[in-house]
Amino acid sequence: MTETDTPEITFRSDVTVELVKASASDADVLFAARVSTRGEQSLEDVDGDASRSAGLINYLMRDRHGSPFEHTSFTFFVRAPIFMWREHMRHRIASYNEESGRYRELEPVFYVPGPERNLIQDGKPGAYVFVPGTPEQHALVDSEVRRSCAQAYAAYQAMLEAGVAREVARVVLPVTIYSSAYVTMNARALMNFLSLRTKREGSHFPSFPQREIEMVAELYEREFERLMPLTHAAFQSHGRVAP
Fold first, then answer.
1. Which residues contact 154 (CB under 8 A, 6 or more apart)?
2. pTM of the full predicted structure?
């Protein structure tokens, strides 16, 4: 491969979340909840008017009757740096299919923290906050990430050009390279994810997410609130605790 054939490296400071498909509405919670008292008559609630049942949804959330919220499904296509995925996949409440560096040549797209990203950890583990860095620190992070990623991707390309297998050549790539995956979860699992991966006023339990996974969570929550507004409101009003 000649120098002119080398793919151009792209640096980003964001993540991408696309809702691919969903079977998720407040009404979906109702028939699952009412089967316990109505049996087969709960089938009448499959297409029920959820706006008339906000109290039931609130009750389920308050008393943590979580299983009715599982009769929903969200499938997202997410593109984010690999270090975010290593945190995300600790949530064993979702189904994942990720692109493979064994079977395709990975694109030269890398994450670099933007100027708004806090850099300095203030405090000890378990009791800390992140605060902004100095302009000099931001400049150092930006330049070093770009330099090291360019060097690593050049080494990756050199090994591929020499005939080395993709699964071997990829070992030089940093965890800041982007990877993409489909993520499917139900509303109960999503609320569990949001409770742990967002920092919000009014949460019963404090959370200290890494900013990059919180960025993904914020985009998930936007779709959750749009599709299930009554459930989201109950989740918020009861301290963002998953039922």
1. 6
2. 0.91
Q: Residue 73: helix, strand or coil by DSSP?
A: strand
Tell me the C-alpha distance between 135 and 137, whole Å. Answer: 5
Among the listed residues 197, 200, 211, 240, the single catalytic one is: 197
From residue 222, how far is each of 1, 7, 17, 18, 186 by CA, in Å?
43, 34, 10, 11, 15
Which alpha helices (DSSP H) does the chain contain, by range?
A: 26-38, 54-62, 82-88, 135-161, 166-169, 187-197, 211-227, 229-237
How far is Cα of residue 217 from the mean position of the Cα atoms in its chain?
5
Q: In order of start, what are the domains of the chain with their CATH numbers?
A: 3-24+72-237 (3.30.1360.170)
- Is 170 catalytic? The answer is no
What are the tens digits of pLDDT across the range 11-60?
999 999 999 999 999 999 998 888 777 666 556 666 777 777 889 999 99
